[in-house]
């Protein structure tokens, strides 16, 4: 338990890598280390912090939008305007065509992923201590982007948009032609084209989700290893440099997720040419 002095680093690391899970069939909390169903288990902590951070982002931007002024802007309005300009510039430079959804989607993806990643900078024992001391919960993880279920869910949302705009712009026939007539434009190679294009299509959401998950999981793991293996009075000498460097990773991963979303949707929105 987090409140006790854990002399075994393996138990400490295992505890911090355990999600707060609920079995939907019985609505009971699953104890860390217990066997659980793959399909009936929900990582409550990842869902909770994802929704809280998303609501926080929408609330702040909504309030600033309602109070926006044409005069001298405040610091918060200035920061949000800079973010808007940054996202809008990337959308204009990478998205070919006009679509009212792309810019808001890119902004949402960038800010939401950034906020989820930013939770990795919270002291590793802070929320687990509160959850166990106050709410008597057995486990708590606060970085949603370090949960593969969250990252793959987001990437699947982007994937469905890719399929939607591909069919919308090119039609079912055009979509089928892309699968069987590229890269080798000959009926003989149709099966090979289909295998190559299908793998390429499916790999987009998988790589998009796994890239974000892998980087954030590795960053979280380093913080846990530092806390679990080193005496408390030496941890700051590694935690502080790693946290400073990790700020770059947090921002970069949010930017990459946004850029790939724009690029994939731009490719899907290009009209088919025979």
Descriptive overview:
By secondary structure, the protein is mainly alpha-helical. It has one domain (50-136, 143-269). 67% of the residues lie in helices and 3% in strands. The protein is built from 8 helices and 3 strands, in the order αβββααααααα. The chain has helices spanning 9-16, 44-66, 75-94, 102-118, 126-133, 148-180, 190-229, 236-269, and strands spanning 21-23, 28-30, 41-43. It has a 3-stranded antiparallel beta sheet. A hairpin with a 4-residue loop joins β1 and β2. α1 (9-16) packs across α7 (190-229), α3 crosses α4 and α6 (148-180) packs antiparallel against α7 (190-229). The longest helix is centred in the C-terminal third of the chain and has 40 residues, at 190-229. It starts with 8 loop residues before the first helix and ends in a 5-residue tail after the last helix. The model is unreliable at 1-5 (pLDDT under 50). This is ATP synthase subunit a. The chain crosses the membrane at residues 47-65, 100-119, 148-167, 212-234, 240-265.
Give a summary of the structure in a few sentences:
The chain has 8 helices and 3 strands, in the order H-E-E-E-H-H-H-H-H-H-H. By secondary structure, it is mainly α.
Comma- or semicolon-separated keywords:
274 residues, mainly alpha, three-stranded antiparallel beta sheet, 67% helix, disordered N terminus
| DSSP strand tally | 3
Instruction: Report the portion of residues in β strands.
Output: under 5%
Label the structural class. mainly alpha
How many domains in all?
Answer: 1
Radius of gyration: 22 Å
Tell me the helix content: 55-70%
- Poorly predicted regions: 1-5
GO molecular function, one term: proton-transporting ATP synthase activity, rotational mechanism
Pfam families: ATP-synt_A
InterPro entries: ATP_syn_F0_a_bact/chloroplast, ATP_synth_F0_asu, ATP_synth_F0_asu_AS, F0_ATP_A_sf
Transmembrane segments: 47-65, 100-119, 148-167, 212-234, 240-265
